[in-house]
Design a protein that fits this description.
There is one protein chain. With 366 residues, the chain is α+β, with helices and mostly antiparallel strands. The chain contains ten helices and 18 strands.
């Protein structure tokens, strides 16, 4: 679950020791329960103090015996889309296929041959990007997805309600009425209320290609469903061993293993992202405030197209798929696919969360 150098770094997360969620720090291998100092991860991040002072030492951290939750609580969960050239092309394919997987292969071949190289080489928001836009409009190839891929404004949307995300080992949900969907393995930044990024982790921005392909106005249904957002295992905090430059050059690996014997593997490099991660943070904060901080998915290069059942069918999830997202400095996030209808219901909303903190006597010490 953890990176090989985890005992050299600092990590932030949440764990349930039997009575409810507690913020935890892992420093040089030691697990510290911070609930009696800062009852929420949001408050701990806002404090800016990751020294572990005042925390309760629980000894050497053993992830196998610790029930880790999603590492965020009161933060808004935001996501950026179409930040890689390949994902831009795949979104255009979904749009032109109207969410029908059977039309995707022929459209993919045509679009990749005509605009693939151009999309990969242009810098978003530049004069060259504007010229490419005009040329694509003249060719009848322009799309709303290309607007956010090469235009000045990034796509930033709200992925998941506060406290609804799931963590490592949890079930992830796909709508039961979706027939074309995929994981979206991504790096997730954690920022405080002023937009200062304190660290990064892994995330799965589960996506329904058929829903969004039918209409971009179905983005909410495509993205926000029960258990459709996974984050973890822990947030690696920036220090001498890990920085934003490690995010910029990170390699993200995806493995999908199905109960039917199907295996899909892929690797992407954050160096191929079209917008710098800190620019995406800046655009997220543009004319908006997040007083409890926010988590920001940076987008994915992956759009799995490997045929699973029949030629031209491409990839879609099946119940029981095990999805593993890994990166050397961040560890591994592993989840098993179920339908959103069958996933454990989301029950701890904000009211229940604060009732739990009050029952444990944590609000008085905050």
């Amino acid at each position: 679950m953890l990176p090989v150098d985890w005992e050299e770094g600092m990590f932030l997360g949440r764990a349930d020791f039997g009575d409810g969620p507690s913020p935890v720090l892992v420093r040089q291998g030691e697990l510290l329960d911070m609930a009696h100092v800062w009852p929420t991860v949001s408050a701990l991040v806002e404090s800016g103090d990751f020294s572990g002072a005042g925390g309760t030492s629980l000894g050497h951290f053993d992830p196998a015996s610790t029930r880790l939750l999603s590492p965020v609580d009161l933060q808004c969960v935001k996501a950026c889309g179409v930040t890689f050239a390949l994902s831009a092309i795949e979104r255009v394919i979904e749009e032109r296929a109207r969410g029908d997987w059977s039309r995707a292969a022929s459209i993919r071949e045509r679009l990749e041959s005509r605009i693939g190289g151009q999309i990969r080489s242009v810098q978003p928001g530049t004069a060259e990007a504007a010229s490419l836009k005009e040329a694509l409009i003249e060719d009848g190839l322009w799309s709303q997805y290309l607007e956010v891929a090469i235009g000045p404004d990034a796509e930033v949307f709200t992925k998941s309600p506060v406290l609804s995300t799931v963590g490592p080992g949890a079930a992830i949900g796909i709508r039961s009425d979706s027939a074309w969907n995929n994981p979206e393995p991504e790096i997730v930044l954690l920022a405080d209320s002023l937009g200062a990024v304190v660290g990064a982790t892994l995330g799965n921005d589960v996506n329904l290609r058929d829903f969004e392909g039918r209409s971009a106005l179905l983005l909410g249904k495509a993205k926000d469903n029960n258990a459709s957002c996974s984050i973890g295992p822990l947030v690696r905090l920036f220090d001498d061993s890990f920085s934003i430059d490690d995010v910029r050059r990170a390699e993200v690996r995806l493995t999908i293993a199905g109960e039917d014997g199907f295996v899909l593997k892929g690797v992407s490099n954050m160096a191929e992202i079209s917008r710098d991660p800190l620019d995406l943070v800046r655009q997220t904060l543009s004319e908006h405030q997040y007083p409890d901080g926010f988590a920001l998915f940076l987008g994915t290069l992956f759009a799995p197209v490997q045929d699973r059942d029949e030629p031209g069918r491409g990839f879609t999830h099946k119940v029981g798929d095990v999805v593993t997202i890994a990166s050397d400095k961040l560890g591994r996030l592993v989840n098993r696919v179920v339908t959103s209808r069958d996933a454990p219901p989301w029950q701890m909303g904000i009211g229940a969360f604060y009732a739990n903190l009050q029952r444990r006597g944590l609000l008085e010490s905050a």
